[in-house]
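Troubleshooting entry. Yesterday's outputs looked truncated, so today I'm pasting the complete records for two proteins to confirm everything comes through intact. If either block looks cut off, that's the bug. Protein one:
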Amino acid sequence: MECITATIGNTPLLHLRRVSAELPEGVEVFAKAEYMNPGGSVKDRAAWAMIQEGIASGKLTPDKTLLDATSGNTGIAYAMIGAALGYKVTLCLPANASLERKRILRAYGAEIIETDPLAATDGAQLKAQELVAESPERYFYPDQYNNDANRLAHYNSTGPELWLQTDQRITHFIAGIGTTGTFVGTSQRLKEFNPAIRAIAMHPDSPMHGLEGMKHLDTAMVPGIYDPSVADEHVEVATDDAYAMTRRLAREEGIFVGVTAGANVHAALRLGKTLPAGSLVVTVLCDAGYRYLGDQLWESV
């Protein structure tokens, strides 16, 4: 018998045929269905890797509480794995995180400490650091923004999966920047397989954006695991464009995902319009759409 963690990774790679119908002939766009992980997001990979590293190093013991800052998805992954393995989990979360995310976290038994919504995840990080400084013996603090196990989770799994799933034909990888683990780790491994692969980092187009979990790096705390040399190009996406693509994915592809996935796909299709035949672009469907049902995104539905 296996624990729920055995089902993390090896997610399908979906060919986006309908939304990419207007691309030049011979250009293909695929998306990694990370919302099909057991915790509903790409963050399952990083959370599991950081917890495994904590156990192996002796930093995470049964008497300690796992504490970290999150915008929601990594926290849900921590809570799911913590429930499965018997660890207590406390999460610092911006107060404006969706109600659905808060309910999921509480369903798994996690304690939530809500932080200043205007400070976003930076504020949640500062609160987590404050708590750890006050009681270091009480907590295991994986610190997802600065923990190399986050990056290595994608270096060791997501990158090789994409290389195999595309039959080694991938030419471009494009993904959003949050903790940066997905983009950096995956890109680094893909470039080892083929240095010609282009890595494109997607950013929100302003500090005040609606792409939950994404960082506007020019105005936010830069994660320690971020490697600026990895990106061959940087692109920006407006929240309204991400919303529109998220709706299109549901209605035209039958793929119900969150707004950051919509932003990734919008950027991938925009890139695809500029590429020659034979190009194969891959992006990431970060999380499931049910986490956003109470958001403005679906008010017009």
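Protein two, checking that the full record survives here as well:
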Amino acid sequence: MFRKLCFIMADAFFMILLVSGAYAENTPAKTAGAKTIILEIDYGKIKPSRSVELCLDGERTVLEVLETAAVVETHPVAGYVFVTAVDGVKGERGKTAWYYQVDGKPSSKLAYTRPAEGAKHIKWSYQEDVCSGKVDNKLKEGKGKEAGEV
């Protein structure tokens, strides 16, 4: 009887360790110097939005934060880097594009240059492309940029 009780207790202890280990894998690690950031991705009407709590250490850009939680495609243009797709949801020039906000405010910097330092909430949104038309009109007016440069 005592032996059977020992086996039951050992099994229960092992199960508790397994459950607590699974929980630990699904929660952000709290390490010294690490910062917690909420990353929200709004896929428009393509698929449901999602939100992830990330615990990051070291300096990261807004683009690098996105890349820790999503599959990201980028496109370089004239020395700049633009996000063209997130988790398979692709922008279409002149129609839809990916934009981001940091702590509820849009940024005037591209994501690959914008430090995420101090940010508490980064939101990426798939929405109407409002920038390409402005750039295309500048190109048509001949403002000194060659076709394809942004």
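Both blocks look complete. Sanity check on protein two: The CA atoms of residues 39 and 122 lie 5 Å apart.
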